[in-house]
Design goal:
The chain is of the alpha+beta class. Helices cover 35% and strands 29% of the residues. A hairpin with a 2-residue loop joins strand 2 and strand 3. The radius of gyration is 18 Å and the shape is elongated.
């Protein structure tokens, strides 16, 4: 029988061991799964824990410029508006902002100027 329960401090050592042995989560610590603003479940079967599922209140963005060629204007307005946007997102309980883009220029800008980190085509900013 499969069961789901909230993570508990007693899960830390097993989680740490599994993270150390996971080639895809190098550098991730158990604290990530206990971070404020996140929820984490442990899913288990009759033999014990099988996996950890972490969730956060994320805000997914879609960006549409009126004119993609007006790069300077777009950048200036985005830098100004983004600070206000982030503050409002925090006030409303969001813990991260994510979006995908096919635009190399926008990806570079968001990483360099707005603090996003890219992973497999997704841009992510922790608030």
């Amino acid at each position: 029988m499969i069961k789901s329960r909230m993570i508990d401090q007693k899960d830390s050592s097993l989680l740490e061991k599994s993270l150390m042995n996971d080639e895809y989560h190098q550098g991730t610590t158990p604290d990530f799964f206990f971070a404020p603003g996140s929820v984490c479940n442990v899913w288990e079967d009759e033999k014990g824990p099988v996996l950890f599922v972490r969730g956060t209140k994320a805000l997914r963005l879609d960006v549409q410029y009126v004119d993609n060629k007006d790069v300077r204007r777009n950048a200036l307005v985005m830098m100004y508006g983004f600070d206000n946007f982030v503050e409002k997102a925090r006030e409303n309980g969001f813990t991260e902002i994510i979006f995908n883009s096919n635009s190399p220029v926008l990806i570079k800008f968001c990483k360099r100027r707005l603090g996003f980190v890219e992973s497999k085509g997704e841009l992510r900013k922790f608030l």
